[in-house]
Amino acid sequence: MATRRIIHNLALVGFMGSGKSTVGRLVAQDLGFQFVDTDALIEEKAGIPITEIFATEGEQAFRQLERETILELGKEEKQVIATGGGAIMHPENLTSLKSHALVVCLWANAESIYERTKHQTHRPLLQGENPLGTIQTMLAEREPVYKQADVIVNTELRPQREVITQVRHQFEESCGGTAGRAES
Ligand code: S3P
């Protein structure tokens, strides 16, 4: 039997370039919720962009800020939260999100992610010589963790508007009830 959970918020997880911020903003609009982006909160807290946090203080410092930021999100309700692609690799972050939010993973395969991100420069982890190879390796490492989300929505099988409808539908189904495991 699934554990009963009180769901006040919706959290989007998934690899870089999976559409968490775009979809999150639009779902928040539909639901009349506040949109929260953990990367933006971290930048606000640090006073510098993420690329600079990685360059000057290193990834561990970024991950520490990310954990602190995610822990604070449980205090508020009616939020759609877009997380950074690596956030739930720390188990504490997934546990914390699941304590107040339905956790929905937006899924895309490595090639699509590469196509969506190849001209962008704000992700330090994808700035190396072989971004497609990096994406393939990281996605394979992260996949088992992404699969621990409550719901997985494949963003490749449908237009964005349908992804938004699907995410919203899953959230409304789970609200105040039992968040089970679903794939769509
Ligand atoms: C990261 C993803 C980024 C950002 C940071 C690290 C990751 O967020 O948190 O660059 O480890 O996957 P997006 O998924 O919003 O690009």
Q: How does the SSE layout of this entry go?
A:
Layout: E1 9-13, H1 20-31, E2 34-37, H2 38-46, H3 50-57, H4 59-72, E3 79-82, H5 91-98, E4 101-107, H6 110-117, H7 131-146, E5 151-154, H8 160-174, E6 182-183
The protein binds shikimate-3-phosphate.
Shikimate-3-phosphate is lined by residues 16, 20, 39, 50, 84-86, 123-125.
Q: What proportion of the residues form beta strands (DSSP E)?
A: 5-15%
The secondary structure category is alpha/beta
How many runs of DSSP E, i.e. beta strands?
Answer: 6
Q: Topology as H/E string?
A: EHEHHHEHEHHEHE
- The CA-CA distance between the termini, in Å, is 21 Å
Low-confidence stretches: 177-182
Q: Name the shape in a single word.
A: globular
Largest sheet: 6 strands, parallel
For the CA atoms, what is the radius of gyration?
16 Å
Can you tell me about this structure?
The chain is an alpha/beta fold. The protein is 49% helix and 14% strand. The protein has eight helices and six strands. The protein has helices spanning 20-31, 38-46, 50-57, 59-72, 91-98, 110-117, 131-146, 160-174; strands at 9-13, 34-37, 79-82, 101-107, 151-154, 182-183. Strands 2-3-1-4-5-6 form a six-stranded parallel beta sheet, sandwiched between helices. Residues 177-182 have low confidence and may be disordered. Bound molecules: shikimate-3-phosphate. Residues 16, 20, 39, 50, 84-86, 123-125 line the site of shikimate-3-phosphate. Shikimate-3-phosphate binds next to loops.
